[in-house]
Each structure stands twice: as structure tokens, then as C-alpha cells.
Amino acid sequence: MRITATMPRMMRVRQHFPDPTVTDIPKAVADQIAVINLSDRIKPGDTVALTGGSRGIANIDTVLKAAVDAMKALGAKPFIIPAMGSHGGATAEGQIDVLLHYGITEETMGCEIRSSMDAGLIGTTTNGTPVYRDKNAESADHIGVINRVKPHTDFHGVIESGLCKMMAIGLGKQLGASRYHKAFLRYDFEETVLDAARINIGTGKVAFGLAVVENAYDDTAIVRAIPADNIIEVEQELIIEARKLMGRLPVMDLDCLIVDYMGKNISGTGMDTNIIGRAMFPDLYPLPAGVPSIMRIFVRDMTEESYGNASGIGFADVTTTRLVNGIDRHATMMNAYTANTPHGMKKPIDFETDKEALEWLLNTLGLTPPEHSRTIQIHSTLHLKEVLVSEALVDEVKGRDDIELLGGLEPMKFNADGNLVNV
């Protein structure tokens, strides 16, 4: 039986979020590092390991290059280490490849990149979790921890995703990341990560942190250099600012969310759980209040920068055959193994075309006819500036100061292959 549906008409809208923006990133980094007087600690000739992560952080190549230049200005010898747990297929070469796609190479950075999956034990948390650190970082005189501070997709507390987590999971490589994620199923995330951060800082190797916070338009809003001893305290302040600045959907109660792209460069869970309202560990770590309630999620494709890692695909109710065909089984399996999230890699039913997927999905909304469904289409959970809202939502968004209507209602736009046009 061929399932058909009358599609809802859609309207493009633009959301207006608070948008503080750092316009001169190299100057901001240099100024911030100057403020914390690193010359008192880092001496000419000292080696400094700078962390490069796997997330799609805005302007990360510019931030890292500015940090390299700041270390050189002190007379130090900086190098970059991939600090990304098991990403890149949990291989040294794969992790260099991840950095390459962010424009981070030895040529562009002007320094060596040292990649290894070897990590050594440096301590044990109070709950018995071993703390590991990248051998290349361990060989340096100092470590500079560089990362974005943002709300975590799974865990919520006084610190979430940021410098402390980078010291634990990023610097811990696959070995450490796997141990931490196992511990998170029994022990408190916040307690474990803070303990790991304290152990890292307590070794005396960590010289400073460099935190960035982004606005809802995926641009750099805050750059903050922090002396090692103040990282935990300042990160608690920055996570509050990050949550205020993050993007959101224009309405919180939906029948259907259409996501053009998921990917590891979008979110650690492919789609940010704070946006889609689905928790990876709902019993252990429920999502905070104020997240959306969405009955059905359709994810259409995966970013090239995800390298086939489809972790988080399990959040979707339907997907496309083209996305499924693009999954790298090993990369996805290794990520799910390390994070202890086999449910996150479960593949939903897939369809050859978007039109077939939507016709099937919109007929699973109970008594709501497809054309009257509360549906939104987004590019990704990271890019929410412009979205498409269905006719049933127009009255709720019309007249709001934070939303601009960009035209009238139009039929859903499918190409000749039966696939939607991207937002």
C-alpha cells in the first residue's frame, strides 16, 4: 500500500537572539593571555601542548593559531595535540584528519601537531575512576587547555561541556574517555569530571585555560583566558552565560521536527539534546526544564565533517537511505562503545526519499492530519537563525519581537528526486 499525505504549508522565519560577538579574535586571545601574566610561569624554551578538539567550534583555527602565536611571543615552543577521546575512529591518524577539516594543520598553525592514542595514568578520582593523560601532553613542560564552554547534551550541573571535560575526556584519549563514560553510569558526572580536572591541575602541568563561548548564530561571543587555579571557578560562571546565549526553537511543542543535517561537528550526540528534547540517559540524567516536547524527528542527512560517525541517529524516528549508506560502522561503533551509548547508534527506519519518509511519518501523529501538523524544518541544531514553520504555528510566532516573518506560506519544496530543499 502506498502511503500518501497532504504536506503542511511552510513559512520561513528569522529568529533574533542576543548576539555579542568578538570581532578581532587574534587580538582578543592575545589580550586575554597577556592579562593572566603567563610569563611568570612559562619561560623561553619551554614546550607547551595546546589542545585541539573535535567539535565544530566557531573560528577554532583562528583561536588556536592565536594561542600558538601568544606562546611564541613568550619564547615558548608550542605544539598542538588532538584532545578528542575516541573520535577520528580512535586512531592517531584519524584525529589528525579531524583537525585538518577544521583548517588546523602544521602549515596553518605554524607549529607541530603531535598525535597519539597513548595515555598514562596520572591519578584516581575519589570514586575510584582512573585519570589518564595524553603522553604527548605529559611530555610537555606545560599544557594549555582550549575548548568551548557550552551546555552538555547529556549531563547538567555547575560545569558541563568545557575546559574541565576537555581535561578529563579529551586529554584522556580513548582509554580515559571509555573509563569516564563507564563511571558516569554509576557515579555523578559533575563529581567525576571535577575530580579529574583537579587532578590534572594539581600535577602542575596545566598552565592555563582558554575558553570560548558562542552565541546562537554559531559565532564567537566570549574569549576568556584563565589561570590554571581558577579554571573550575570561572567555568561555572561561563556555563551560565553560554546557556543564556544558546539558540532554541521558536516553539516548544511540536508534532514533527525535520533536521537537514546531524553530525559530530554539530553536537556530540549528532543533534543537540537541549534542542530536540531527547535525553541519552533519561533515568540517570534527565534534561533540564524548558526543553522542547517533540513527538517525531526526521533527520535527512549527515555532515561530511562527521566522517560517517552517526552517533545519535537513535534519537530520530525516521531517516533516509542516503544517510544510512553514509554511516561508517567502525567510527560509530567505537564512539558508542567509548561513550557506553549503544542505543544512540540504533538505526531508525529509512526511506529512499524525503517525501516517502514524511508521508509515512506524518501519518503517525494520531488524530492530527498531516497538513495541520505542528512541524518545523531546521538546517541543524547548531544553526537556528532561519527555520521553516508550518501553517499551524504561524499564529504563535506572528507578532513576536524575536521573530521576523520572511514571506508567506508556501508548499513544501521538493526537488525532482523527491527530496526537500535544505533550509
Description:
By secondary structure, the protein is of the alpha/beta class. The protein has two domains: 167 residues, no CATH class; 221 residues, Rossmann fold. It contains 14 helices and 16 strands. The chain has a six-stranded mixed β-sheet with strand order 11-10-14-15-1-16, covered by helices on one side. A six-stranded mixed β-sheet has the order 4-3-2-7-8-9, with helices on both faces. Strands 5-6 form a two-stranded antiparallel sheet. Helix 10 links the parallel strand 10 and strand 11. Helix 1 crosses helix 2 and helix 6 packs across helix 8. The two termini are 31 Å apart. The model has no long low-confidence stretch (mean pLDDT 93).
Tags for this model:
30% helix; six-stranded mixed β-sheet; alpha/beta; 14 helices; Rossmann fold; 22% strand
Q: Reading side by side through the largest sheet, how are the strands ordered?
A: 11-10-14-15-1-16
Contiguous runs where pLDDT drops below 50 for at least 5 residues: none
- Write out the CATH superfamily name of the largest domain: LarA, N-terminal domain
- Beta-strand percent range: 15-25%
Number of strands: 16
The end-to-end span amounts to 31 Å
Instruction: Output the CATH topology of the largest domain.
Output: Rossmann fold
The profile of the biggest β sheet is: 6 strands, mixed
Spatial shape: globular
Structural class by secondary-structure content: alpha/beta
The level 1 CATH classification of the largest domain is: Alpha Beta
Number of helical stretches of at least 4 residues: 14
Q: What is the number of domains?
A: 2
What CATH architecture of the largest domain would you give? 3-Layer(aba) Sandwich
Helix content: 25-40%
Helix and strand run? EHEHEHHEEEHEHHHEEHEHEEHHEHEEHE
What is the alpha-carbon Rg in Å? 22 Å
Mean pLDDT: 93
